[in-house]
Amino acid sequence: MKSTVTMTDNRTEKSYEFDIIEATRGPSVVDISKFYSETGMFTYDNGFTSTASCKSKITFIDGAKGELRYRGIKIEELTLNHTYLEICYLLLNSKLPNEEELQDFDLELRHRSLIHENLRHLFQAFPAGAHPMATLSAATAALSTFYYDHLNISNEASYQEMARRIIAKIPTVAAFAYRHSIGAPFIHPDIDRSFSENFLYMLRAYPGGKMHRGRNGEHIIKDIEVKALDTIFTLHADHEQNASTTAVRGVASTGAHPYVAISAGISALWGRAHGGANESVIAQLKMIGSVENVDAFIARAKDPTDEFRLMGFGHRVYKNFDPRAKILKGLQDQLKNELNLDSNLMQIANKIEEIALNDEYFISRKLYPNIDFYSGVILTALQIPTSMFTPVFVIGRTVGWITQWIEFKKDKEMKIARPRQLYIGK
Ligand code: SDX
Predict the structure, then answer these.
(1) Cα–Cα–Cα angle for 274, 176, 133, nearest 5°?
(2) Spatial distance between the Cα atoms of 35 and 287, rounded to a whole number of angstroms
């Protein structure tokens, strides 16, 4: 027997039947694509809290359990045993790479990490204090002008080339945006360095690529820093149909260039309700200043008349601990001695968490720390400036956005995204 949901309009006593489509994991859906043509009404779902916008095989989140899987594999297993580049390969190809596939993938990204020399002039157009997210969004859209042939691609090989190109170039664009914002000369990517090490190199190196060594001549990009950044990129790689991925799919649905779709994702991510929260968390911890002040700010977060919100807390899907937050907290504890993490900021964060997790206001609303609550303290310890926190999120997430873009393009059922409205005007 077919699974259906029946709805009755009590004004007319008319009933309507809609099919249920089962998921392989998580909630089923009610197919309401014929709802308007059958009922003459629209459904209304402010913020899409109960709306599935597509079918996807990429990432699965169980908000109640606090579970996250990329291509069916749990995030805990992936961060423990695999590098970010293996995760990129997994998301793009639905399987983890073998040794040879990984080497080829890594080499290809290294060779594609350079950007066209003309793009340098774009950065000069921005004032020194320009926020790197603005520059990153603009430069990513500008990349489409150098690869206009990606506009009409439709086969696997072209999708893979387009995807590897943008994954490889985003860290360079982000690093250039930062270097411009501090008036420092650009450092070109060094193809002898791994993906994550290369990003730290492009942020820190002196002109000519010289890296001053520490007091005892030690290499100033430590392996532990590279591993921490690699884990952070993995944790940010994809997250189902979040706001910025929805923006990417929306632009993809009109047939625009894939790199302007990524640029739209960067713009959407910048908001402090989304990826911009990681920058706001550190600003907030610094504003709170000491453990003694935490209670007063918790009271403000609970006050409905006060706009203040605890940045890094709450999530549309997770009504339990964000599994990524748990992993980052573990990483914080692991790094605190090796990278002398800012103990004051950590103490304030731990105090917020301790109070909030026992306070009725947060418990009743199922507000837990999310990925942004812990990432900032680690990024600060990696000497990454606060203005570059959300660009780090962009670097991690680009593989997710482009994988979602490809899935959209391959889905024969997908159409232009064009929701309706409840008109309440004159
Ligand atoms: C990311 O979607 C994703 O997957 C995103 C992301 C990804 O990987 O792509 O996970 C990355 O964006 C993480 C979230 C980062 N944002 C923040 O940390 C900003 C602070 N958090 C909030 O603004 C909020 O929690 C959201 C935006 C994350 C979620 O908002 P919702 O789901 O729309 O929830 P809501 O605003 O309706 O809040 C429900 C209630 C409200 O109280 P009442 O009206 O019921 O009394 O909870 C309260 C809110 O006032 N609330 C908070 C709060 N978050 C929600 N109160 C105080 N502090 C907070 N942080």
Answers:
(1) 20
(2) 49
The DSSP annotation for 29-40 comes to EE--TTHHHHHS
User: How many angstroms is it from 56 CA to the middle of ligand 1?
Assistant: 24
Nearest to 7 by CA among 59, 61, 43: 43
Find where tokens 């926190």 sit. Answer: 389
Residue 372 Cβ < 6 Å to ligand 1: yes
Q: Is 62 a catalytic residue?
A: no
Distance CA 178, CA 203 (A): 7
**Three-state secondary structure call for residue 9:** strand
Nearest of 408, 123, 24 to residue 247 by alpha carbon: 408
365 C-beta closer than 6 A to ligand 1: yes
Helix or strand holding residue 73 (H, E): strand 73-74
pLDDT above 80: residue 220: no
Domains of the chain by residue range: 4-52, 72-419
User: Which residue's entry shows tokens 């943008």?
Assistant: 166
The pLDDT, as a whole number, for residue 216 is: 67
Query: Which residues are CB-neighbours of 164 under 8 A, at least 6 positions away?
Result: 105, 108, 109, 112
- Reported as a single tens digit per residue, the pLDDT across 357-384 is 899 999 999 999 999 999 998 999 898 9
Q: How far is CA 291 from the centre of its chain?
A: 30
For residues 137-166, average pLDDT:
96
pLDDT digit string (tens) for 35-64?
999 999 999 999 999 999 999 999 999 999
Q: What CATH number should be reported for the domain whose range is 72-419?
A: 1.10.580.10
CATH fold of 4-52 reads: Rubrerythrin, domain 2 (2.20.28)
The C-alpha atoms of residue 417 and residue 252 are separated, in whole angstroms, by 9
Catalytic residue among 150, 236, 239, 315: 315
pTM of the model: 0.96
